[in-house]
Amino acid sequence: xxxxxxxxxxxxxxxxxxxxxxxxxxxxxxxxxxxxxxxxxxxxxxxxxxxxxxxxxxxxxxxxxxxxxxxxxxxxxxxxxxxxxxxxxxxxxxxxxxxxxxxxxxxxxxxxxxxxxxxxxxxxxxxxxxxxxxxxxxxxxxxxxxxxxxxxxxxxxxxxxxxxxxxxxxxxxxxxxxxxxxxxxxxxxxxxxxxxxxxxxxxxxxxxxxxxxxxxxxxxxxxxxxxxxxxxxxxxxxxxxxxxxxxxxxxxxxxxxxxxxxxxxxxxxxxxxxxxxxxxxxxxxxxxxxxxxxxxxxxxxxxxxxxxxxxxxxxxxxxxxxxxxxxxxxxxxxxxx
Length: 337
Ligand SMILES: [Zn+2]
Description:
8-stranded mixed β-sheet
């Protein structure tokens, strides 16, 4: 729903009734469509206008808007450090952006429980990086395995792996130069895709003013918290800090009722892959940069990329426990001056 339609709806529905109709009813028992995600964000901006700002930061190849939500405590203090989260790079990883929506919900709707995370920090969240790919993956059961975006890539094929299209180590390791590769096509050059360009712009903006401290990109699956580098078998200088912060998130999760078994390790631990957003964010100045791979198994039920709807709620809640612990430590390690 666009802003103008939203406003008209408000007018027709009456000022009191409408927030209740389109307001922040985040349901954790289903996967929202691109349009429903938009409605949810609009509802939050309407209901919590003192603490929430929406911003259109880019447009996908098929002309869907990429929107961030900036969440603050509304005190108007400028220059706070920033936690930046994105999700949904890969079309089939539906749980990833669903998790991002739950994080938004915790910070905005459950503000009273979480306001300690907003005293000295702002959170900027891009819940859906690849709306075209996601919408395609929902459109037919045959398409559910789609991963890339939807821009024509060459040789009559479609799509680039957005998480191979960033500049750092572009083309290294587990990336393909074949436009018809179903999963890992890296693009003709770094930043050929509107979606990766959009994230590049945001990351550069947040590091130019020195505010961006944590970059967190949510993917599925694997129950892993990864840190740079991904593109080479080298060790970053503050790897201990990354490891400590990731392990504190894992410890917090381990105290929940049915904890997933997470590991923390560098992105290169399994295989090298160049062109990732995690490496790029770290390289341009985010001192902390992680990929969060959500679990693909619950108890003895293995669902991989496709968690059944009845598990969404406990999965997103568990992840929030970990993200919260991670954020607490980020704020401690990198206080706003
Ligand atoms: Zn992914």
